[in-house]
Specification:
Number of helices: 7
Radius of gyration: 21 Å
Strand content: 35-45%
Distance between the termini: 54 Å
Number of domains: 2
CATH superfamily of the largest domain: Nucleoside Triphosphate Pyrophosphohydrolase
CATH architecture of the largest domain: Alpha-Beta Complex
Structural class: alpha+beta
CATH class of the largest domain: Alpha Beta
């Protein structure tokens, strides 16, 4: 028998300080047990995109998927190894079962702790017991990027080389701009380029091979000619570093005024100004 490597995503769906549990319908593996809504990823699918798709299919309404709850949980399953990624999420509407769930129930971690949960969910419940869900805000997906540390990115001490964080900032920035509708291709087609004016990074804790580093991007400042972005690196919810990059925009070697020549772009950025 060939054992599979199953890539699964699930959501801790938040509403008014409570989260949503689903009871697996009859005929499904683990029927009558409780779980966090979600499902299998398609090959090559981004985990957050995959979870948004699964929640829409399973609960019948769109979802916003935010930050990671825990590092990937790996457990043995009936047909192979299950790799479970769990993210906070919120729904744009009232959920209803489309057949995958026999029952849906909202509750606090304490209220739902006594349900008969699938084993893979238990580490998540332990984490949620220490989280004030009433204060939790699900971030915009544009601001979130996850990088898993590759072996070649570490040095002889097994620690991620500091230079990689600058490259991760570029990954997060590229994702952020593309998600808000302003990817680099759009700039290039308009004859625009965006030079880096300055970049810096501060390191608080090391990361190592295999770590999942979440990067939160926000707009620190946007004025007439310059954009400054801030980046926060976290691992398992702990801040491991932060960074900042500043950029101008040019066309034919001349500075472009954001307020005059790229007003729509400037308006899009201002929605993400850091508090």
């Amino acid at each position: 028998m060939i054992m599979e490597e199953l890539q699964v995503v699930a959501g801790v769906i938040i509403k008014n300080g409570r989260f949503l549990a689903g009871k697996r319908a009859a005929g499904r593996l683990g029927a009558a047990k409780w779980e966090l809504p979600g499902g299998k990823l398609h090959p090559g699918e981004d985990p957050r995109d995959g979870l948004a798709r699964e929640l829409a299919e399973e609960l019948g309404c769109p979802a916003t998927v935010g930050e990671r709850v825990l590092p990937t949980i790996t457990v043995p399953g009936a047909s192979g190894t299950v790799h479970l990624q769990v993210f906070y999420a919120k729904l744009a509407g009232e959920p209803h079962s489309t057949g995958a769930q026999a029952d849906l129930r909202w509750g606090t971690p304490a209220e739902l702790a006594g349900l008969d949960w699938l084993p893979a969910t238990k580490p998540v419940l332990e984490k949620l017991a220490a989280v004030d869900l009433a204060k939790l805000v699900v971030a915009d997906p544009a601001q979130l990027w996850t990088h898993q540390v590759a072996y070649y990115e570490t040095d002889r001490m097994g620690i991620t080389h500091h230079s990689n964080y600058i490259r991760w900032m570029e990954e997060a920035r590229t994702h952020f701009l593309a998600t808000i509708g302003w990817d680099y291709r759009r700039f290039e087609e308009a004859g625009l380029i965006s030079p880096v004016v300055s970049v810096n990074c501060r390191y608080k804790q090391p990361t190592t091979f295999g770590d999942q580093v979440d990067i939160f991007t926000s707009v620190k400042q946007v004025d007439k000619i310059k954009l400054t972005l801030e980046y926060t690196f976290t691992k398992e919810g702990e801040v491991v570093g932060s960074g900042e990059s500043s950029h101008c925009f040019t066309k034919d070697g001349r500075l472009v005024r954001l307020d005059r020549d790229l007003a729509d772009f400037k308006a899009s950025l201002e929605k993400f100004l850091a508090d």
